[in-house]
Amino acid sequence: MGGKKRLVLVGNGMAGVRTIEHVLKLAPDIYDITVFGAEPYPNYNRIMLSSVLAGGSNMKDIVINDWDWYTENGIRLYTGDAVTRVDTANKKVFSKSGVEAEYDELILATGSNPFILPIPGADKEGVIGFRDIQDCDRMMEASNKYKRAAVIGGGLLGLEAARGLLHLGMDVTVIHIHPYLMERQLDEPAAKMLQLELEAQGMKFMMQKQTAGVRGGRRAEGLDFADGSSLMADLVVMAVGIKPNVALAKASGLKVERGIVVDDYLETSLPGIYAVGECAEHRGIAYGLVAPLYEQGQVLAKRLAGVETGGYEGSVTSTKLKVSGVDVFSAGFFQDVPGTRSLRIQDDLDGTYKKIVLQDDRLVGAVLFGDTTDGASLFAKIKKGESVAGKEKELLLGFPAGSAGEDSQAARLAAMADDEIICGCNGVSKGTIVEAVKGGCGTVGEIKACTKASGSCGGCKPLVEGLLQLYGDGVSGEPVKEGICGCTSLGREEIVESIRAMSLKSVKEVMNVLEWHEPEGCSKCRPALNYYLGMLWPTEYVDEKESRFVNERYHANIQKDGTFSVVPRIYGGVTSPADLKKIAEVAEKYDVPMVKFTGGQRIDLLGVKKEDLPKVWAELDMPSGHAYGKALRTVKTCVGSTFCRFGTQDSIGMGIRLEKAFERLNTPGKVKLAVSGCPRNCAEATIKDLGVVAIDGGWEIYVGGNGGVKVRASDLLCTVKTEDEVMEWTAAYLQYYREQASWNERTAQWVERVGLGTIKTVLENSEERQKLAGRIEETLSRSTDPWKEIIEDESLRKNFEPLASV
């Protein structure tokens, strides 16, 4: 590291990390980089929070740069550790946990905070903003206890929060002070169409309402309005805007107005300190859209890398969004004002609307609803300011009269300027994508890996595919293949078949023989290959630890502060006084900060230091509960006929038998089971990956359930009479899932993809069912308890020793 300048980034969000990405490309060896993030996660896409809330994504799906990216680029990362002070005289920053970091160049990318209305009761429990992943967690937690939600704000964030709460089963009312929704992005006709669509989805609205206060005691119970009316609500989400987070900058003596004041090179009032993103104010404007923030990052990166560049001159903005499943786009001045002319098409049957606004023969604004295909080309014409006289109707229609739809799409893409933004989520232009295609990217997956285009909401994927067809080898019109990751164009089926046909026996061999573009693979394909090899060759393949995620390498769940949680196996949720005493003694001896019962009837020891893990496991002397892995997690049970007067079968015994049979089983995604002793279903067996429900004289087996963010009720697979039949059908089903599902695909998605009928056809064949059960038994016969293995192997225990201080 000697001789390198020290670059510190305060804020691990989209704008700051995108700046670092550009610096690494332009000058990879100039800086020793340190990043501080207030949240306990790597860099993630805040735009996709609504998708997490609505169940379409999870935290892992929205991560832009994972933990490995920081390590691979030599970046020192502190998560969950906000910077609290900057010593500008001595060029040092100080974090909440006491970390000190010296800098030569400092970037402040502290983002923004949600604006909370200054009204009585705004500080009550149950009143939250919508800005980060923790807000999503709070909403999901509230939906488990309460049913009525009020969202204040009918802009984009408010509507996305409302849609997510609807998905969580809450009764949702949106309160908006304006006559129509999203007035900053839509004109009234488009907004009314949107409201009708959202009302059809179950959303309620109170328009032109000014909130006067939050009613209730300690917790919110509703809202009072200025006109004297009120609304009962158990959860209040404020989504009325954002304000730049300038507290650190102000305390550091930087010039602050609405945001941190910066010049055209994003430098603040103090030399060597820069600000980028939502916290920065440039020429009186603080931007809240991603494209301007990325443009700022490009200029700042060039400045830091010593590359000659013009300054940042501000941005002409456009907005392309997906609001609760409906595409909308707006750009420029789209309202009708004196001196402008407008043309519009409204199709209530197809649910589309298009409006363009002209001034002095120039296109100055546009609104699109339902179909946003023309957004990028219209935005380019707005920015250029050229005369469109005689082409007005062509702009409105999106193609010259008489041209075909596909041909018009190709023509539009060809006519686009290189600086037009294709992927709004990640600020990727047409020119960047075309350059990647001409540089050898031959699939959407490769383009995504190279440029991040289509890597977030996926709304631009048709345009990316179009550019690939237009400028790449796909010009023949053949379907564009997308592989399991950007390292390969091969899909799951091709990879598995190749491994089987060519008897490939290692991750490195697969990547070499199948001609991976990246010889070392990535964090997506390596774990997948490791699983497929283990599934195909259970008696020969040696598990490759380095291809597993950090939780599976350390056999414990890493927490936001770097400690781990330990969950021992408790079969069927049944324990003993001796085991409880042992757990308590270990928790006391190792100062475990929290002991918690999990939703799967187990005990979780939270906050264990990495170096203490082997000692904790040894003293517990219990098997691993695999709470960290893609494996069988728990088998939840009710008391069944053992004690319950309604129980028809021994659900405890059945659950313990299942758990002891299938513990340590590696699967494509985590697997949860449950056994209920009667149709009252107290063990919630019908929202599990596999659930067994006792009936008079037999058992029902349900599959494909999910009780997580995206709830799915399971499907009835079969009804059997004996416990042995339950075991056989369960074994066959789990093995069929293991052999057919894609890596990281939960059973709920797998069942929906392949169809319950297909699964039944296979498993109803007695011979095939027994073969599947035989293969899973062979796999399980080779498995060992990982905690015991590490305890007994000194070479493995060394991986848990604390790093020597430098």
TrEMBL record:
[4Fe-4S] cluster binds at C638, C644, C678, C682. The keyword 4Fe-4S applies. GO terms for biological process: nitrate assimilation. Pathway: Nitrogen metabolism; nitrate reduction (assimilation). Its cofactor is [4Fe-4S] cluster; [2Fe-2S] cluster; FAD; siroheme. The keyword Metal-binding applies. Siroheme binds at C682. Residues 6-282 form the FAD/NAD(P)-binding domain. Residues 318-385 form the NADH-rubredoxin oxidoreductase C-terminal domain. Binds 1 [4Fe-4S] cluster per subunit. Residues 558-621 form the Nitrite/Sulfite reductase ferredoxin-like domain. Residues 421-469, 484-533 form the BFD-like [2Fe-2S]-binding domain. PANTHER family: NITRITE REDUCTASE (NADH) LARGE SUBUNIT. This is Nitrite reductase [NAD(P)H]. It comes from Paenibacillus antibioticophila. The lineage of its organism: Bacteria, Bacillati, Bacillota, Bacilli, Bacillales.
